[in-house]
Amino acid sequence: MAGPRLASPLAAGSITRVKTSAGLDSDTDSESDTSSRLVVAVDGPSGAGKSSASRGAAVALGLRYLDTGAMYRALTWWLLERGVDPGDTGAVAGLAAEPVIEVSTDPQAPWTTVDGTDVSAAIRTREVTSAVSAVAAVPRVRAHLIAMQRDIIARASGIVAEGRDIGTVVAPDAPVKVFLTADGAARASRRAAEASWSTRADQDRRDRLDAAQSEKAADAVVIDSTGLGLDEVVDTIVRLARERAGALFPRQKSR
Ligand code: DC
Questions:
Q1: Which residues have a Cβ under 8 Å from the Cβ of 226 and sit 6 or more positions away?
Q2: pLDDT at residue 204, rounded to an integer
Q3: By residue range, what is the domain housing residue 88?
Q4: Which residue has the least CA distance to atom 5 on ligand 1?
Q5: Which contacts qualify for 119-124: CB closer than 8 Å, 24 or more apart?
Q6: Ligand 1 atom at minimal distance to the Cα of residue 73
Q7: Are 63 and 158 in contact (CB under 8 A)?
Q8: Which atom of ligand 1 is nearest to the CA of 166?
Q9: Is residue 241 included in any domain, yes or no?
Q10: What are 92-130's pLDDT values in tens digits?
Q11: Considering only CA atoms, which residue is closest to atom 2 of ligand 1?
Q12: For 157-201, how does the pLDDT look when each residue is reduced to its tens digit (9 = 90+)?
């Protein structure tokens, strides 16, 4: 990844596992003083390149990484495995806290498990992708997963968290907020490169369904990635984070 590394309270890759459900592992690097933690919120629509950019920025900055979309996907996978109709709001709400969902916060080795099963690939299938918006719209699902996400963020000494509502709901006090977007055609072609079955129509449908959860924070910096390469997006986020970190934590050395 381009650019020198920021001196960080946590070397990237030093933690590979954080439980997000019952029996939370404590993070030995976590600090109770949250004012000294760098939280970078990266929101934006599907296909804007959030995951690659967030992981790249986390590696470059030496921070942890949280993919909140993976958590919604994990719950959706579990519901589908049990034959639950994702449109049955009552059933989905009642089961939201049942599975034990775990995510890695290592930006170089992200993975997701449900009740101990690695679902990192299974949560990216067309079936899960088609169903996840309905599940993510259920208020009890959001309340449960947002509480888990806040807990993970609070335990990390520094983190890049990506999703739809990080800067507005999950971590509204994050010192760095990015809203990463791109035009519809660029987003559709990125999605198709990742998943051959993904069409522009799929994307438009998901955009509509996800709209209620996808507000830009008033203080977020908008990055339009349409004509940018991944390194350029990462560099922009890293620069913003360093500027903010310099202002927030002037005594922390950077190299
Ligand atoms: O970013 P993604 O495609 O992996 O997200 C999967 C789904 O989860 C998508 O429908 C939006 C939803 N989501 C959400 O509602 N809130 C988040 N913080 C992250 C994802």
A1: 182, 183, 186
A2: 83
A3: 35-249
A4: 69
A5: 119/74, 119/77, 120/70, 122/77, 123/70, 123/73, 123/74, 123/76, 123/77, 124/73, 124/194, 124/195
A6: 6
A7: yes
A8: 18
A9: yes
A10: 999 999 999 999 999 999 999 999 999 999 999 999 999
A11: 69
A12: 999 999 999 999 999 999 999 999 988 888 888 877 877 777 888
| Ligand 1 interacting residues, C-beta cut-off 6 A | 46, 68-69, 72-73, 132-133, 136, 163-165, 206, 210, 213
Structure tokens at 80: 């589908």
Could you please report the per-residue DSSP string of 17-35? Answer: -EE-SSSPPP-TT--S-GG
In a domain, 220, yes or no: yes
Residue 61 in domain: yes
- For ligand 1, atom 18, the nearest C-alpha belongs to 163
Q: Is residue 20 part of a domain?
A: no
Question: Which ligand 1 atom lies nearest to the CA of residue 165?
Answer: 18
How many domains is the chain built from? Answer: 1
Q: What is the CATH number of the domain that holds 174?
A: 3.40.50.300
Residue type, position 205, single letter: R
Compute the distance between CA of residue 135 and CA of residue 248 in angstroms, rounded to an integer: 37
Prediction pTM value: 0.85
Cα(254) to centroid(ligand 1), Å: 33
| Length of the chain in terms of residues written | 255
